[in-house]
Structures are given as structure tokens and as C-alpha cells.
Amino acid sequence: SKVATVTPGAAPASRAVAIRRACRSTTFAQNGSRDCEGSQTVFQVATRGIAAISMTALLSFGAVDTEPAMAALSNPNTRLPRNGVAALRRAVPSVNTDAGEIQGRLEEAAYLLRIPQRKPWGTMGDDVKSSLGIVRDRRAKLLETVPPGEAKTTAEATIAELDQLLTELGDIAGSQDVERFDIGVAMALDATSRLRVLQAPGLPFDVPKRYDSLPRLTGRATVDLTVRKNGPDTFGFVNGEETKTAMLRVIVDGYNAPLTAGNFIDKVHNGQYDGIRIKRSETALIVDPSPDDRDQNLPLEVKPIDDYEP
Questions:
Q1: Is pLDDT larger for residue 195 or for residue 235?
Q2: Are 268 and 21 in contact (CB under 8 A)?
Q3: CA–CA gap between residue 86 and residue 63 (Å, rounded)
Q4: Which of 20, 79, 220, 244 has a Cα at 20 to 30 A from 269?
Q5: Is there a contact between 121 and 176 (Cβ–Cβ < 8 Å)?
Q6: Residues 6+ apart with CB under 8 A from 228
């Protein structure tokens, strides 16, 4: 089994952590990887971009790509995100107003697409056109808050990608193709979200000094959990063959819960979840606490809508 490398441009936790297992590499810092032999359950960690604990789960088997399982929120408040992807997108701090305007217009277009009767293609097309205008006319402003180096190079490529997506999306709006517009606006929103993450390289608020000794995640991290069924049970058939392993992907939100997220990533880096048994409830995956957990005190981080910090 392999643990993926941690990519530069993000802060996985406040300190580098030694890996404690039979691994060929012994440390995790900004870059690093470990190859562990004989492990049955392995967490794979790859920090992407700069910052997220809201969780989005993706179940896949082996090398087979499957559709993510989506959970929809039923609430009359239209401002609340309806799924994990939207929640993570809105969790990014609003550092650049121009990127925020692009996201707002594209979210409006995505919302208008859900109208069951005659769809307002003119308004949706205007939203796309305005977004494309911002990308082309305010490119320098979109790059203002991006740190130099690899992050800026990635941001420039993301802006070019967004330009192409919005150009194609404008043509799709003109042809009034519902299915293609739905896919296109989702891709444009994803590119916009990745750009906003690059624009927000750290926390927009200060963590109280009394928590300085605790690890923290100042951005967004991705953890891949490989699980294996015990006994004769399997996860079902894939390409005609039964499989006993599956992968769960967790997006960890350090923007809104830096200490809770940092504690989780710290344990992942330490290999604390390697080889353990997992219990499942209707709403969570549960692991038995280690002796260290019983003596650990973490603050309860709750960030209401429109509040600046938890």
C-alpha cells in the first residue's frame, strides 16, 4: 500500500510529524511519501491547494471510477448549501471580491437551471458572460492575493482553464442544452473554487494563543481511507468480480475548524488510524479512542453563517 505525497503550497499541521510504521520514509513535511508494507488499512494523505472538517465521501473500488454518493439537505433556507461540494466551496474565506463575484454569478446560473418550467436562458447566459468578462478584464486582480511561486503558476493555469470553460458554457447557454449546461457550470464552479483556495493561503482569523501547542490545519486537506471487509463479506461486484476493499475520500476543512482538522490530520500523519477496526453508524464512521485521546482537550469549533470566525 502507498501513502500519497503531501504537495507543497499548504500547511498540513503546525509541525512535521514522524511516521511510526514499517515505512521506508520516516518523516512528513511539506513534501514526502511513505511506502508501508503489510498494512491492511492505510490512510493516504494528499494536501491539495491551500485549505478544509466538512466531509465529502467518495466510494470507489480499485481503479474503477464510480459516481460520488451525494447527500442533499432539505431546508427552506435557500442560502444553505445542499451538498458537501457546495458547502466546501462556500467555506473558503472571501479574500478576492472578483473571484467571489464569479462564484456568485455561476451559483445563480446553477440555481436558475433548476427551475422546472421555462428556464431563463437569457439571464443564465448573462451570468456566464459577466463571469467571463471578469476573468479576462480583471486577471491581474484575480492574481493579486495569490502567493508567488508554484501557487501563482497553478492560479494562472486555473484562470486559463476557467476562461475556456466559460467560453464553452456561453455557447451551451445559447443552444439551451440543459444537460451540458449542468455539467459545464459545475466544472466552472469547481475551477473557481480551486482559484479561491489559492487566493486564501492561510486563516483569515487568529487562533487563541492558549491553543498554540495544538496542531492546526490552515487550509484544505484530502485523506483517502482504504478499507477492507472482514470475514467473507464483500462490498459487492465490480466488473463481474467481488471486491473486499473500497476507498473513502474525506475533505478536511481547516478554514472553519483549524484545530479539529489539525488534530485529525496529525493522527493520520502519525499512522494512528492504520490497521484499526472501523464501526459504522447512520451518520458517522467511528473508531475506538486511543489512550492519548482520553487526556486530550480540544475546543468545540462552531462557525455560524456570516460569522467571521468559529
A1: 195
A2: no
A3: 26
A4: 244
A5: yes
A6: 40, 41, 244, 245
DSSP at 160: H
pLDDT in tens, 54-93: 333 333 333 344 455 555 445 555 566 777 888 888 888 8
Region for residue 75 given its phi and psi (left: phi exceeds 0; alpha: psi -120 to 50; beta: otherwise): beta
Which residue has better confidence, 162 or 53?
162
How far apart (Å, rounded) are the C-alpha atoms in residues 42 and 274?
A: 5
Q: How far apart are CA 184 and CA 38, in angstroms?
A: 43
The pLDDT score that the predictor gives to residue 303 is 79
Task: Name the average pLDDT for the chain.
Answer: 76
- 110 CA to centre of own chain: 20
Instruction: Note the pTM of the prediction, 2 decimals.
Output: 0.66
> What is the length of the chain?
310
Query: Cα–Cα distances in Å, from 249 out to 4, 87, 237?
Result: 13, 16, 20
Long-range (24+ apart) CB contacts under 8 A made by 113-120 are: 113/178, 113/181, 113/182, 113/185, 119/176, 119/178
Q: Considering only the C-alpha atoms of the chain, give the largest distance between any 2 of them, rounded to a whole number of Å.
A: 61
Q: Report which residue type is found at 48.
A: R
- Asked whether 255 and 200 are in contact (CB, 8 A), the reply is yes
Confidence of residue 202 (pLDDT cuts 50, 70, 90): confident
The cell for 86 is 457546495
Task: Give CA–CA dist 50/145, Å, rounded.
Answer: 13
Distance CA 13, CA 271 (A): 15
The strand ranges marked E within the chain are 2-3, 17-18, 27-28, 34-35, 42-46, 59-60, 220-228, 237-238, 241-242, 245-253, 279-280, 285-286
Burial code (b: 16+ CB inside 10 Å, e: under 16) for 235-252 equals eeebeeeebeebbbbbbb
For the CA atoms of the chain, what is the radius of gyration? 21
* Half-sphere CA count of 247, side-chain side, radius 13 A: 21
